[in-house]
Amino acid sequence: MLFRVLKFVLRTRFSRPFLGFILLMIFYSIVISRAIPPTGISVIISYYIVGIVAFFLAMSLATGGVMVMKSDRDFLFTLPLSSRDLSIAIFFSQFIAYGVTVLLLFAYLSQAFSSALLLVDLVALALTLTSLGTIAPSMTTKGRVSASVLLALWTSSALLKFPFTPGSAFSGSVVYGTATLVVLAAATVTIAFRNLPHVELDMVKSMVRSSSSEIKAPNSYVGKSPVSAIYFMNLSNMSLAGRFNMAGTARYVSKRVKSTWVAAIASAGAAAYVAFILIAYGAVHFSAAPLPAQIIANVILGFLAFAFSQSAITYERIWLSLTSLPPATYFRNLIAAKVLSLMLILAPFAVADAALAYLGYAGALASMVVVAVVIPGFFVLEVCWAAFTAPIQVKGDDMLMPAQFNLRQMAAAVPLVAVMGIAASASGVLDIALIGGLAIWVVSASLAVSGGFWNSVVSRLTESGFV
Fold it and tell me: What is the mean pLDDT of residues 330-355?
């Protein structure tokens, strides 16, 4: 019976091309790691890997959830199935989705990580990410946020040469880091399987918490034109609602935060970023080499921009929006408003880099260009690309997946690969930052102002079920 349930769950969650791509990536990773001799890991790559490991672990817990479809609630959960079989099937399907994320991020770095423990590290990391997402619905919002921050700080301590962290396996302490990953995976998997039989109850609790919060100071759009309403809506509040897609792994969250709070939190983060660099390297540092904190900060900001870009279209009511404005006009202003909203987060870090450049940190100037130019341009490009690939529209906050995972969904992450490479390599190289930023903005601006492009987007969204 377990095999039948597992087969059914996999077939309903993933398209066949998607599963084929997963097998291809696994084969690629194994062949590359075995065929190419170990070369050792560079310092910059180790900073990059530790940063993304910390980010993904924190985000999996902060925004995670169980990959449950609407068909599960209507059909699968009503069947007299063994809770053990159902738990294993759901967990395995979720592992595949998270495993793809890990493979896409690490496969191309396999040469640097070639070792007998590479496969163990990747599997343990994928298991941990899967389990954290499964554990998240059973925790309160404050508990998830607090645990996510602590988990990110613990993982990032690998940069301080602390060996017993999830990131240490990728920054020099291979044996201790792998042992830590294995222990963490075992602990989180155990907790996840204890929670899976109660997945329906946990999801209901999450929905009640998110829907029963008090509505304070609702916005009024009386007297505003359609264009001014777009800017007012996006600049007075930052919407965290929408589809959070990472290489095919999706989560739905719904939250609006006052822009003043977002700016305050970003400013505090930028101040902490500057304080850390000054304490670690001194008030004056005449070096053009990128610093670990700069690389990690830029990579994390790039990932946040990607996450926000996925919510720009998925909650849009196309029929309502386009009755007041032509498609090109509406989407141009929507993107402009979203970019201005994103700058509430990016601007404090750009100012922080400018201050560091004034103090003699030559590499901070390139980092500032990445934050102020490359990442906003990437955001525009990603919104256009996500709209063109016709993402799934979210019509409610029931936190249920409406459809399968397929290759089209994964295509939304294609621009992310190039931008992360630019963000990591250009953090201390001004020429790369300027050329990369200019190239991204040329492509992004061309798409954003093209009336024909947005007309085709509307057609694709309508064909994909947007209403």
Answer: 90
